[in-house]
Amino acid sequence: MSTAPQEPAHEPDETTQDAPSTSAVLGAALGSAAQRLGIDPAAQESTGHVVWKAMGGWRGVLESVLPSLAFVVLYTIVPEPLWLSLGVSVGIAALFSLVRILQKSPPSAALGGLVAAGGAAALALWTGRGQETFVPGFFTNSIYGAALLISALVGWSLIGLAVGFLMQEGTAWRADRRKRRAFFWLTIAWASLFFLRLGVQLPLYFAGDVTTLGTLKIAMGLPLFAPMVAVTWLVVRALYPRHAPAQESSS
């Protein structure tokens, strides 16, 4: 049976001088990223609205699903030449990027997906193996999963750092056992999501089953991301009642 994390050996306020400053910078970066996704616990919004904003609305859903879906469908129907399915997939990503550029979206938002799709396609063409297009995603899931897991185990949960910034309380949440425990398990849950993707998809990669791999990649993307955002939102709102004043920042 799993148990709640043990209390830290020292009180949060007695950490070294470097830890709070580092956590403040990291929390600000994570909190800003959450705000760009439309996730802000201080906002008076419904859970469904927050989840939809985090997914990017209809455009975000299409940008996430269509390039991979096009590749899987075309590769299944016409596996050779490989460049055909890859070219269509990258072309769709390029079209979405062009629309963002025309709408004056930030360059990172406009080009990030295109660069990722182009890099994955280049790797697949270089090796001549369709399954190589999924390799960048394996590295992304590994890095995110490891970072979240380690942060939870050392008592500086990344979810807690982000929420602390958003709620303007810095690292004061670490002095609250209830919040610290909630953020620990939320962070573990997010880490488990990334590791679950790896556990399911890696065997298919080594087996060379591109169609099933691509299908499960789509199925384990937004369909799993959305419920996790909803659960995280609900837990955070329970920890921070809407009319409760924000605590002072401890950083």
From TrEMBL:
It comes from the Bacteria. Residues 1-21 are annotated as: Disordered. Keywords: Membrane, Transmembrane, Transmembrane helix. The chain crosses the membrane at residues 60-77, 83-102, 109-128, 143-166, 182-206, 218-240. InterPro entries: UCP010219 (IPR016566). The keyword Transcription does not apply. This is DUF3159 domain-containing protein.
